[in-house]
Design a protein that fits this description.
The chain is an alpha/beta fold. The protein is built from four helices and twelve strands. It folds into two domains: about 120 residues, Hypothetical Protein Aq_1857, Chain: A, CATH 2.60.300.12; about 70 residues, GMP Synthetase, Chain A, domain 3 (2-Layer Sandwich), CATH 3.30.300.130.
Length: about 220
């Protein structure tokens, strides 16, 4: 999994108490090296005791989430924000960012000499949620309509496309081409986006199989 770059910005100061959340209720953890770095930055702020590190999912970029990290006054927290402690650091996560950040870790980059912080997140956004679709006809016709109306417009932004090879009873066999052929994340795209969308919109389909030859093609859009 690629590291997602995260930047830290600064903010002013004042004070309400933070609550310690049980370990099981913590969506994002902070690695020791990152905690040391963040606390060092926090210490240079005016009235650091009044500040929390706010970590928010702000959108998506391809198959990754985008984030905003900032020191923010604790008393500016929304009523449904999740506030918890990790060591001496108070962390504030907006309610709608809790699920996308569940299981993630704030860490330092693994590459030697690279600065800043990264968020290693096992979760991926569904790139197809912004498209409305209307489907009718046979199972094969509906799969093709779904590909044409929502899936391929999303893949087109990365130079790729998906095509239905055939429907075998309750299985849809799909192949990916263009930028998706040889793509390092196309299997993830298929599982997290295409398969999810087909299974959700076409109940007769219970399995989606990727028939793409990812070793073929001269210039895949992404490479390992």
């Amino acid at each position: 999994m690629d590291d997602a770059a995260a930047t830290t910005t600064e903010a002013p100061a004042t004070d309400p108490p933070a609550t310690d959340a049980p370990a099981k209720a913590v969506p994002l953890k902070v690695a020791d090296a990152a905690l040391t770095q963040v606390l060092a930055i926090l210490a240079a702020e005016d009235d650091p005791e009044s500040l929390a590190l706010r970590i928010e999912v702000t959108g998506t970029r391809g198959v990754e989430y985008t984030y905003d990290l900032a020191f923010e006054e604790r008393d500016r927290a929304e009523p449904d924000d999740l506030i918890y402690q990790q060591g001496e650091l108070t962390i504030m996560v907006p309610a709608d960012s809790v699920d996308p950040l569940w299981g993630a870790t704030l860490d330092v980059p693994s590459a030697s000499g690279q600065g800043g912080l990264v968020i290693r997140n096992p979760n991926r956004p569904d790139p197809l949620t912004q498209f409305d679709v209307e489907l009718s006809g046979t199972v094969t016709e509906r799969v093709n309509q779904l590909l044409d109306q929502s899936i391929n417009p999303a893949l087109a932004a990365h130079g790729g496309f998906a095509r239905l090879v055939e429907v075998r009873e309750s299985t849809a066999v799909v192949t990916m081409g263009g930028g998706c052929q040889g793509c390092a994340v196309s299997a993830l795209t298929l599982r997290e986006g295409i398969q999810k969308s087909i299974l959700e919109h076409i109940p007769e389909i219970t399995e989606v199989v990727d028939a793409t030859d990812h070793d073929a093609g001269e210039n895949p859009f992404y490479t390992d």
